[in-house]
Fold these 2 entries.
Entry 1:
Amino acid sequence: MSSFTVRARDGAARRGTLRLAHGVVETPIFMPVGTAATVKGLTPAEVEALGAQIILSNTYHLWMRPGREPIEACGGLHRFMHWERPILTDSGGFQVFSLQGRRKLDDDGVLFQSHIDGSRHRFTPEGIVNFQEALGVDIAMALDVCVKLPAKRHDLERSVELTAAWARRCKEAWTRREATALFGIVQGGLDRDLRARSAEALVALDLPGYAIGGLSVGETRPEMFALARYTASLLPEGRPRYLMGVGTVVDIILAIEAGIDMFDCVYPTRCGRNARAITRSGELNLRMARYKLDTAPIDAHCTCYVCRNFTRAYLAHLFRAGEMLGAILLSYHNLAVLLELTAQARAAIERGAWAAWRDEALHTFGDEQAAATVAAPGIAERCAEHARP
Amino acid sequence: MSSFTVRARDGAARRGTLRLAHGVVETPIFMPVGTAATVKGLTPAEVEALGAQIILSNTYHLWMRPGREPIEACGGLHRFMHWERPILTDSGGFQVFSLQGRRKLDDDGVLFQSHIDGSRHRFTPEGIVNFQEALGVDIAMALDVCVKLPAKRHDLERSVELTAAWARRCKEAWTRREATALFGIVQGGLDRDLRARSAEALVALDLPGYAIGGLSVGETRPEMFALARYTASLLPEGRPRYLMGVGTVVDIILAIEAGIDMFDCVYPTRCGRNARAITRSGELNLRMARYKLDTAPIDAHCTCYVCRNFTRAYLAHLFRAGEMLGAILLSYHNLAVLLELTAQARAAIERGAWAAWRDEALHTFGDEQAAATVAAPGIAERCAEHARP
C-alpha cells in the first residue's frame, strides 16, 4: 500500500515522501519518460546513476508494442526493462484521444486504431487497470477522457463526467492494491467550475494520488499555472499531486510554487536528441557554428558525468557527424539538470527558503520571456489572485 | 617510446605485451573502432567497463570532420573524446583510395574530394604523420597506397613501391617518438612476391610495429589467412603485427593462429546497430519473430552487463520500436564477446593450450561454413602449406 507524507511546506510548495512498492520517492520530483519501456538513449544503469527515483512509461505504447505477453513473460515491466525503482504508467487516455478520426468514444470505453499498423483495439477503464496491474507498476493512472482545447462546454462536461465514472470503475477493477497505487486524473480544461466538479468527484473516491490532466496543451503559461494552482487547492493535502506532461525548467519551478509534487516530460530527452542543451545560461543549440571550437563544458555549473568530461566542441562534433553519442550524452546532461533542479527545490523547501531559491532559479534558468512572465506582479501572485473562485 | 615483448608462443600464436604512452596493451587484442572519435553508441565509460585496452580512430574521418583545430583546442584526441587509454589511428589510406573517381594519386601524395561536401584535400606522408602526432595518438599508421582487388600486377607493384617510399618519408617526418609509435603497412595484394618485397622494404625501416593491409577486401577466407600467415612470417619477431579490418570471431581466431597480435573491425558495432547478435550459438537476428517472447539472455554463456540483465524479448522489442537502446545494448554485448574472446586466447597461449582452445572456440562460435573451412585438412595446416613460398 502506498503512503504519502508532507514533511514540510513553504507557501503552497510542499516537500513530501511517497512510499511505493519499489521504493521511496522524495518530492517534488521530476520523472524521466520511458514511453516504450526505455528512457530514450540511456541504459537503466545511467538513469539510476542520474539519481532518478521514479520513471514513467506509457500504457498506450506498451499495449501496442510489445503488448502484454512479452512483459509478463519476463516477470513484469521492472524486470523487462531492468529498472528496479518505482514506475508510473500513464493510462494512455491522452494518446488515444490524440488519434483524431481514428477513435470512437462511447460510455463504456474507446475504440481506436493503432498508429503503428491500423489494428483495432478497445480501451476500457477495467482493461487499462488490469493491464497496468499485470505490468506490476507502482502507480497506475485511471483511464481519463481528454478533450482538445479550445473545446465546447458540452464536450468538456462530458469529459469530466466520463472521467469521473471511469475513475469509479477503475477503482472497482483495482485489485493489486499492495503493489500498485491508483491515481485519478482531474479534467475540465480551463474552466474553473468544471475543474472543481472533476476534482470533487475524484476526491470522493479517496484515491492514493491525483493528477492534473488536460494542461500543457497549448494554453499560455499564466493560464496553465493559474489552473494548476487552483486545481491543486481542491485536492487533499495528504495525497501526492502530479501535473502531467510538465515540463521545462521554468514550468517545473512554477508548478512546485503551485503546490504540485510530481512532473514528467519528454522535453529533456527530446531536446537531447536535437542538440538542444538545457543550461543555467538558457537553452543552447549545439549545432550552431559558435560551439565548434568551444572547449567549455555544456554547463560550467553542472557536475554531471557529461559536463565533467566533455566539451561543447566534442558534442558539436558528434551532432554534426550524426553520431548516437551526441544524443546519449546530451539526454544525460539534460535529465541531470532537471533532477538536480528538483533536488535543490526539495532542499530549499525544507529549509524554508523556497521563495528566494525560486526567484534565483527562475533568474538563472529563465529565458527572457519566462523572466518577464514571472516579473512583478509575478506569476505566483497572479496565480494566487486567479485561484480565488 | 613504445616497446613490445613476446611473453609466450604456442605454434605461431603469440602472447605479448605492448607498452604505449597511454598504457599497456596485452596481445592478442581486439581494438573497438571509434571512426569519428566515438565507438558508435557507447560512452567511453562503457568502453572502459568492457575492458577495451586500446581503441582505433580514423585519420581520414577526423581530418574531414571535425578537423584538426577542435581536437587540438581540447588538448588532443584523448581529451577530446575522453578516452584515457591508448588510441591507434588508421592513416586514412584505405578510405582515400576507396573514393573511386574522386581521387588522384601522384608520387608525392593523393589529392581527393571529401565524401561529405566535395571539398578538396591533399594527403601526403608528412601531412598524415603530422596530423596524427598533433592528435597525440599512441600509434600512428604510415600513409599507404591501397589497391582494389582484383588488380593488375603493375598497379600492385606501384602500390608496393609507393607504400615503401611513403613509409620512409613518414619515418623522416615522425618527430614525437616518445608519444607516438609509427607502424608501417605491408601491401601487395594476394601476390606472395609482392608481399615479400613490401615487407622487406618496411622491415628495413625498423619501425615499432607492422600492419598487414589490403586484406579482408573480398578474397576468400583461406586466401586471406594463407596470406596473413605468410606475411606475418616475414615480419620481425619482436614487433607487434596488426591485421587491419579483421574481423569476425572466426577470423580473429584464425588470425591469432597465423601469428597476428592486433585486430580491429566495425563488425561488432555495425551488427549491434542492425539487431545482429554475436553469440556462442552463432549469429542471431533479433528482429526475427521467434525472439519476441524469448526470455533468455542474448548469450547464456556471456557474463556482460547486457546478458546479466536483459532478455532477447526486450532487445527484440527495442529494435522493433526503433529505440536507440537496442543498438546500444547489442553493440555493448557484441564488443564484450570479442574482448572476452581475445582475453581467453591470451590465457590459452600462456598455458600452452592454444590448439585445444582454438578448436573448441571455432566449434562453439563457428557458423557451419567456417567450421567446414577449418575442418581437415584444417585452415591452419593449409595456411602452413601455402606459406612455403
Entry 2:
Amino acid sequence: HAGSGQSVARSHSTDPSRMIDTLLRRAEELGVSVEFGIRAVQLLVEAEAVVGVLCEISGALVEVRAASVVLATGGFSRNLELLERFVPHMANAIHGGAVGSEGDGLLMGWKAGADFRDTPYVKGTFGIYPGDDPREGGTGILAVYKGAVAVNFSGRRFVDESLPYKALGDACLAQEGHLAWQVFDQQTMDRDDPDVHIYWFSGRLATGLLETADTLEELADKIGVPADELIRTVEGYNAAVRGEHLDAFGRRTLSGTEELPTELSRPPFYAHLSGSSVLATYCGLTVDPETRVLDVYGEPIPGLFAAGEVTGGFHGNGYVTGTSVGKSGIFGRLAGLAACAYASDAAHV
Amino acid sequence: HAGSGQSVARSHSTDPSRMIDTLLRRAEELGVSVEFGIRAVQLLVEAEAVVGVLCEISGALVEVRAASVVLATGGFSRNLELLERFVPHMANAIHGGAVGSEGDGLLMGWKAGADFRDTPYVKGTFGIYPGDDPREGGTGILAVYKGAVAVNFSGRRFVDESLPYKALGDACLAQEGHLAWQVFDQQTMDRDDPDVHIYWFSGRLATGLLETADTLEELADKIGVPADELIRTVEGYNAAVRGEHLDAFGRRTLSGTEELPTELSRPPFYAHLSGSSVLATYCGLTVDPETRVLDVYGEPIPGLFAAGEVTGGFHGNGYVTGTSVGKSGIFGRLAGLAACAYASDAAHV
C-alpha cells in the first residue's frame, strides 16, 4: 500500500514479531546462543578500547570480556527524562515504545566518549488510542488517510490531515489535552482493510474503541465536543471537498497519494480518540559506514559497534514509514560482520 | 532599568569588558599567570581521572599535567554544526557570540563521558542589525520595549512585542528572510537612553542604522515593504492602543512592566532592520553544586570541573536577562575554589 508520504504504493505490511522469530530460529540453527535475563550495566574500557561488558546476572555483577561489542539496545522512548531533555513537548506524548527502551546503550556509548546526532527529531506517531488500553495494539489507526478529519476538543480542525503521521503527532500534541478525535463517516469505514493495522477500522469498532452515532450532533454529544462547532467544521470541510473554497488547512489529498478527500456525509459517523505516541526515537550514536561507533572527534572507539535504533544520523528530520525495520535489519547484519572481523583480527586479541 | 520580562527595575547595566579587566588586574596582583595563544586540544585522562590538558603551543603538542582542570571555554555560538545539531532553525540566525565559542570544552567533556543538558533551549536574541556590520556593537536595540512594533517584509506584525527578547528571536526566525523591521515614531525616539546599549536609539540614528521618513508611506517605500499593509498594520495597532479592540497579538504593555504601549503617530518615523543573534548557548555539561563535572551515570569525573557558558542546567527554557554574567562570575569563583581544594588534597597528587 501507499504509506504516509508516499506518492505511489511502496509499503509492504509486515509483522515484526514474525520477522524476529524467523531471525531467532536461523540464529539457533547456526549455533548462536542468546542469553536472556542478563542486564548490560556498563562497557568495560581498557586503554581507550572496549573490551567487554559489565553485566548483572542474577543480582551479581559479572565482567564479560569480548573482543568486540555491538550496542543494539534500541532507543529511549520509555525514558521520560531523556525524552524531555531533547524534545521537551514529548512529555505530553504517549510513551508506547518497546518495554526496555530506556537508552542504556546510549548512555554506555556516551560514557565511552561517543558522538551522537538527530536529538531534536524525536516525534510522536498520531492515531494511538490513549490510556494504556489493552485493546490498543500499539499501531493506532490512521482513518485520516482514508477520509477522516482530526478535530480537537473544541470541535475544530487544526492541521492538514494528509501530512505524514509524525507531523500530525506534533500538531496533536499542541492541542488541549494533547489529544484529538479522528471523525469519519461510513464511506471511510468502507475503506477498512483488516490486513493493514492502521486501516483496520472494523477491528476498532468490534472492540469498542470507536464512538458511533447516526448524526454528527449525536456524535458530538457522545464525545463531548460542542455540536455546533463540529457541524460547522464538517460543513466547511465538505464545501472545500466540493471545490467551493480552498481547504482551511490546505488539504488537497487523502494522504501523499493523488486520491482526493471525500465529504463526511454518509451515516453512521465514527470517532476515534487519538494521541501521539513515541514509538521509537530516531536519534543516537554516530557510526561510520562499517557501524563503528565514532567519538566526538570523529575517531572510531576501538571494539565498539552499534546498529538499529541506538544509532543516529539515518532518519533525519523526516521519518519515512517502515525505515526503522530496514535500518535494524541491514545495519544489524553489517555490525555483526564488522564486529566479527574486528574480533578475528589478531591485533586486537 | 527594568529588563526584558521584569515587572520592576532589577537590571544594572554593566560593561562586561571592564568587568573582565578588573578581574584580570586582580588576578595579576595575586600572582596568577595567564597564558594566551595556547590552544587546549584534549583532556589527558588516566585511570578515569583527568590529569591535565593536551595543548598546542606554537604548533607543537605539549602535555600540561595538572591535579585538576576547570573547563571555562564558553559556549558554541560560533560552531554552526553543533548549533544546527541541537536547534536546527538556528541555522538561520546571526552567529554573533564571542569569537572562539566553538564548543571545544563541551567536546572535551563529552569525550570524558560527561553528561549534558538543556540542548533544546538555545535561542537567538532579537534586535541585532544583520550582516556583520561594524556599526552593530553586538547588542542590537530593543525599540519594541519602548513603543516600536515589529513587522515582517510583508508589513505585518507577527508577535506580541512585549515578550522576552529570546521569544521575539524565535518569532523573527520564522519570518521571510529571518528578519524583521522595528518601526517606531518620535515618541519612542524620545525614550532614548545612551546609558543602556539596547535603548540607545539616537546612537543608531547617528551611525546611519535607522531608516527615517516623515510619513509611514515614505518609510515603507524606503524599507521595501508594501505601504498599504504597513499603514493598515499601524492603524490596527493604534486602534488597539486606544482601546477600540484587543491587540491582534495580545500585546498589553511595553515590556514586562506595567507601562502601556503608545500610538505610532508622531513623525518622523524610524525603522531598524533586526535579526536574531545567538549570543550564547545556555546549555552544556552537567555539574554538581561544587562544579564537579558529572558523567552520564551521575558520578563526578575525578579532576574535572566546569563553570560558565560551557555548563547546562542553569537557565532552563526561559533565559533571564543578565544571568550569563552572574552565572560565570559566581560559578567561576566556586570552580576555582573547588579545583584548588581538590588539587591540595594529597589523595589525588
